[in-house]
Structure formats: structure tokens, C-alpha cells
Design brief:
single chain, 190 residues, mainly beta, Porin, two-stranded antiparallel ribbon, globular
């Protein structure tokens, strides 16, 4: 058995300067902010086959438009339940290849600033299926391991409902092949 707490944070700002030969113009803008936390509990049902259950919460804030010195933002809070399965293939003494597939259910809330004093509120919910094909785990010792996932494949189907129009909704389906991101986790074996 193992537990794996995960915390992710992303934030920043950008600045650009334009010189037209006479005048210099400087622009500064905040970048999107995200904070996510999740906890995973896993159990080996066979020597190389692991079942796990993941519970997570995420917050993101994306700047959209600047009005004076204030940025209008789109803020999202989401909750996710995720059962998954992974197969462990030993590559070296303590190094394992661990491809993983899973399904998830997600529910969330988005508040999008329309003006400095008004906002649009929407709720969404849906499901997804994913595969992390490039995943590795290194066992530091009997109790601690470090895992890394690079990219993955994800298909999701979400339904979004607006608070302003109670009978209106939109269905969004998305397929993503991601080869540019990475996630590192620490596993604590019990």
C-alpha cells in the first residue's frame, strides 16, 4: 500500500517593452495562477499491478482584460475523484516503468468577471479517461519512491450550466495529447 500527496503551484508575470525609435512603451501583465492538491491511496493487488484512488482539488485564476489598474479574471475551483490502475515493469534494480490508465469525475465552479462589478457564474461537471504512457518510478528505499509522469493522453466530456440561464447548458468534449508537461510525485509505502 502507499499514499502519495501532491501539491502543484504555478504563477508569474510578464513584461514587454516596445521602442518605436522615439518613445518607449512598457506593458506588464500577470500570468495565470494555479494551485492544486491531491492525495492518492494505492494498493498492489498482484506483484506488478496497482489499483489506486485519487482525490483532488484545484484553483485557477486567469487574467482576461485590464480596466485601469485592475485585471478582470476568470476564477475556477474544481474537485476530482479518480480511480486508476498501473502496471509496474522493472527496468533496473530500483527503477520501474509504470504506465497508468484511469477515469475521473470532475465537478467545478467558474466565476468570470464581466466588468469591475458584475460576473458570470457557471457550474460544470463531467468525466474523463486518460493514459499516462511515459511514467517512471524510482524506489529510494523500501518506504519512499519518486515518480515522474511526462505528458499523457486525455479525453473528457464536460457539461457547463450558466447561473444566468438555468435551462441553458453546453457540452464540451476535448481530446488532448500532451508531450510538454511533467509531474513529479513522492510515494510513501506503508
Amino acid at each position: 500500500m502507499f499514499i502519495a500527496p501532491t501539491l502543484g503551484v504555478s504563477f508569474g508575470s510578464q513584461s514587454s517593452r516596445f521602442f518605436d525609435g522615439v518613445n518607449t512603451t512598457t506593458n506588464k501583465a500577470p500570468m495565470p495562477i494555479s494551485l492544486a492538491g491531491q492525495g492518492e491511496f494505492g494498493y498492489f493487488v498482484a506483484n506488478n499491478l496497482r489499483l489506486a484512488f485519487d482525490l483532488g482539488v484545484a484553483f485557477s485564476s486567469t487574467p482576461n482584460t485590464q480596466i485601469g489598474s485592475r485585471w478582470l479574471r476568470s476564477n475556477t475551483v474544481s474537485f476530482m475523484l479518480n480511480p486508476n490502475v498501473a502496471y509496474y515493469v522493472r527496468l533496473a534494480d530500483r527503477l520501474y516503468y509504470t504506465p497508468e490508465i484511469g477515469v475521473y469525475y470532475e465537478v467545478g465552479f467558474t466565476k468570470e468577471d464581466l466588468t469591475a462589478s458584475t460576473a458570470d457564474n457557471t457550474r460544470y461537471f463531467g468525466w474523463g479517461i486518460y493514459a499516462n504512457l511515459l511514467a517512471l518510478e524510482y524506489r529510494v528505499n523500501q518506504k519512499i519512491a519518486i515518480g515522474a509522469i511526462i505528458g499523457g493522453i486525455d479525453f473528457s466530456s464536460m457539461r457547463e450550466k450558466s447561473k444566468g440561464a438555468p435551462n441553458a447548458y453546453s457540452d464540451n468534449r476535448q481530446f488532448v495529447l500532451d508531450l510538454s508537461s511533467a509531474c513529479v510525485s513522492v510515494y510513501f509505502y506503508l
